[in-house]
Design brief:
- The chain is of the alpha/beta class and about 230 residues long.
- The chain is built from 10 helices and 10 strands.
- It has a 6-stranded mixed β-sheet with strand order 6-7-8-3-9-10, with helices on both faces. It has a 4-stranded antiparallel β-sheet with strand order 2-1-4-5, covered by helices on one side.
- Strand 9 and strand 10 form a beta hairpin.
- Helix 3 runs parallel beside helix 6.
- The longest helix has 16 residues.
- It is globular.
Length: about 230
C-alpha cells in the first residue's frame, strides 16, 4: 500500500530523515518507535505532504506522492490524527467532524460515518453542539480520531495519540486503535508509549537519529534486548 524508499528529509540544513525505507501492506498496523527527535513525526509529515523528500520516493498504491499537495494526498485516502490533537477550538464538535469529510459529497455515506463515530465515541454525540475548545483533552483526542475517520481513509496515521492522557484514557485509545484495525483500517502508529505500540502492532520500525535501525514483527522486536532496555525500561 505505502512504501518509502531511501527517503531523505531536511529542515533547512538539518538532515532529519536519512535514507529511510519502510513499507505498509494493506490491512496492517505498523508502528514507529523511537525517542524524541528520532524522526517519527517527520516521517508522518512526509507521507502527508507537509514535508517533501529531497531524495528518495514515497509511493501509495504505486503512485509517487512525494511531491503532491496535502489536499491531493487526503483525497487519495491518507488521513492523519496529529500530535496535540489540533482540533478547531472555536468550531463545534459537529463542525469539526464535517471538516474531516470536506473532500466528500456522498451524503448517505457521510451520515453513516457520523453514526459510526458517535457509536464509537458516544460522548461526542452528547457534546456535538459544544465548541471543541471546551472539551477535555481525552474528548479532544476522540474528536481528532473521529475527524480523521470522517474522510474514510485507506491509511490512517496516528501521531502520539496517548500523549498527555490519563492512564484509563490511554487504555481507551489503545482499544479504539485496535478496533479500527480489526475493522480493516490500515494504520501507521507513532507512539512514545512503546509498550502500548508494540502490543498493538503487526510490525515495528525503530528509528534513531533519523535512521531505521531495526524492523520486524512486533513480537520479535519486543524481545530485542536493545529495545527492551532503551524503550521499555526492562
Amino acid at each position: 500500500m505505502l512504501q518509502l524508499t531511501d527517503v531523505d528529509v531536511y529542515y533547512g540544513q538539518i538532515h532529519a530523515l536519512k535514507s529511510v525505507s519502510l513499507r505498509i501492506e494493506q490491512g496492517e498496523l505498523v508502528t514507529l518507535v523511537g525517542a524524541n527527535g528520532a524522526g517519527k513525526s517527520t516521517t508522518l509529515k512526509t507521507i502527508s505532504g507537509i514535508l517533501h523528500p529531497r531524495n528518495g520516493r514515497v509511493t501509495f498504491f504505486g503512485e509517487d506522492i512525494g511531491t503532491k499537495s496535502m489536499e491531493y494526498i487526503v483525497r487519495l485516502g491518507i488521513a492523519q490524527c496529529p500530535e496535540g490533537r489540533r482540533v478547531f477550538p472555536d468550531l463545534t464538535v459537529l463542525e469539526n467532524l464535517r471538516m474531516g469529510a470536506y473532500t466528500r459529497r456522498e451524503k448517505t455515506e457521510i451520515k453513516q460515518d457520523f453514526d459510526e463515530v458517535f457509536s464509537l465515541f458516544p460522548i461526542l454525540n452528547e457534546r456535538k453542539h459544544q465548541s471543541a475548545g471546551s472539551l477535555s483533552g481525552g474528548e479532544q483526542q476522540m474528536l481528532a480520531i473521529g475527524r480523521a475517520m470522517m474522510s474514510r481513509p485507506r491509511l490512517m496515521m496516528f501521531d502520539e495519540p496517548s500523549l498527555g492522557l490519563a492512564p484509563l484514557l490511554v487504555d481507551r485509545m489503545a482499544e479504539v486503535i485496535s478496533l479500527l484495525h480489526e475493522r480493516g483500517t490500515t494504520i501507521l502508529l507513532v507512539e512514545q508509549n512503546a509498550e502500548m505500540a508494540l502490543s498493538l502492532a503487526d510490525r515495528v520500525y525503530v528509528l534513531e537519529t533519523g535512521k531505521v535501525v531495526l524492523e520486524g514483527p512486533s513480537q520479535d522486536v519486543l524481545h530485542n534486548e536493545h529495545v527492551r532496555s532503551a524503550y521499555l525500561g526492562k
